[in-house]
Amino acid sequence: MSLFERLDELAGRGEPAALLTIVRKDGSAPRDVGDKMIVTDDDEYGTIGGGTVEHLAAQDARSVLAGADDPGVRTYELERGGNTGMVCGGEMDVFIDRVRGQAQLYIAGGGHISVELAPLAERLGYAVTVVDDREAYADPAQFPDETDVIHGDYGDVLSDLQMGTETAVAVATRSGTFDQDAVAAALDGEAGYIGLVASETKATHVLDSLAESGYARRDLSRVRTPVGLDLGGSGPAAVALSILSEVTMDRHDATGERATRLNLVDLVVVRGGGDLGSGVVYRLQQAGFPVVVTEVEQPTVVRRAVAFGSALYRNEVTVEGVTGRSAADIDEALGLLADDVVPVLVDPEATVADELDAAVLVDAIMAKGTFDTGTRRGDADVVVGMGPGFEAGEDVDAVVETDRGHELGRVFYEGTASEYDGEPGERRGYTHERVLRAPTDGEWTPAVAIGDSVTAGDVVGTVGDRPVETEIDGLVRGLVHGGLGVSEGTKLGDVDPRGESVDPAKISDKALCLGGGVLEAVLRLR
């Protein structure tokens, strides 16, 4: 039997193999360019030279078969000090390619789903076998000519069939007992995919029974049930499509995600681009959600170095590797999303959430219950409020605690966060002392920059003609943008007494914690 005949035989049995071909030879080597061999998980056919070089090449081939390494050229040095230990005095390149076996689909049960699934799988190149213990259902006339139809006991027939990583078994019998026999045979045969068509109650009974009979829960976790991808639709044809979609996705180790450049199905709109809201944006964006930030025209963001709202002043801001950019309208925002950039829109009411049918709306305005932001449950599929002023289960779906302490970042699905007590977070014993506030109404003009070190009594800026002094030594961690008209008592910035040990360009621990809480709520409720 030639090597290619052997390869065809292996493929027909659904057994993957690696084909090794010498593609370059330099100097003395045991075989010539074009010589080949086949390597499977436990066998070898042909030779590319024997000895250490062949042993190493076979090891590399099995790594490719296992998916640990990619196919490609491997170089073997046949000289003293080379990577083989051989001293022939030459070198050769071997191309290692993975040859997939014939994709096989075994269907236990010849009913309505099987009648739809078999022809669909045949069209996609699967070799299909249908098994049923009822003669009327094991009727070849109900299936394509290429389909192998077997009348017999599910467990016995499936146990006699060749199985491997290229084999998928879909179980859709009329009884939990028969389902159990078919699933057991698929597990014993180490089929690459095992799917069970069953209700939750029936599936639990089947898997529990198999566990009681000695099958490990780790192995039972491989059984896909509910079976198939959630594609919607109903009826046997829709179920068949969902099953084959999942089988094909698993076979090709694919994600099943949309391949479109921009997917708005999971769009998140975050109201408020301050430092805490930006921690939420960062977490969500890093988790793969497309995020749009909405703000007022001149946001009073304090920690501007880590606030996406700053993009409305500088056009673009980068927060720990994530870029935010101002967008004039929704069309421009969509273009930025397609480029993996966070759009920042002037949209105080977050109307973009309705216009783009956002999946999630997060209110990160941080009003602290002092006024009604207008966010309501129903503004999106999932609505999350941050801090006091929201009641989970009433005006929003979830509330994230923003008060420092043991509850920080906790998500409430009923009830409210703790009330705002008016106390800034404590830093080395300082609370109000570290906050810079406007002494009067007027235009704010800063005299220092974020990241500067200051000493108690230093003038950090003016509001109108009134100086603003820092009460403590430390590092300027935040300042609102210069030129803003502010009211008396407005927070203008903050000084961190920890000094240069703090990096103002890094998202705070609090912001990241809140982002984690929002991400939990989104994943749970979406």
Sum up the structure in keywords:
alpha/beta, 28 strands, single chain, elongated, nine-stranded mixed β-sheet, six-stranded parallel β-sheet, 526 residues, 26% helix, MoCofactor_Util/Proc
Q: Which overall shape is indicated by the principal axes computed on the Cα atoms?
A: elongated
Mean pLDDT: 92
Number of helical segments with 4 or more residues? 13
Strands, count: 28
Largest sheet: number of strands, sense, barrel closure: 9 strands, mixed
Radius of gyration: 32 Å
Kindly estimate the percentage of residues that lie in beta strands according to DSSP: 15-25%
The helix content is 25-40%
What is the rounded distance between the termini?
57 Å
Explain this structure.
Residues 105-247 form the XdhC Rossmann domain. This is Selenium-dependent molybdenum cofactor biosynthesis protein YqeB. Residues 12-68 form the XdhC- CoxI domain. The chain has 526 residues and is an alpha/beta fold. The chain has 13 helices and 28 strands. The strands form 5 sheets. It has a 9-stranded mixed β-sheet with strand order 14-15-16-13-12-17-18-19-20, with helices on both faces. The protein has a 6-stranded parallel β-sheet with strand order 8-7-6-9-10-11, with helices on both faces. A 5-stranded antiparallel β-sheet has the order 3-2-1-5-4. It is elongated.
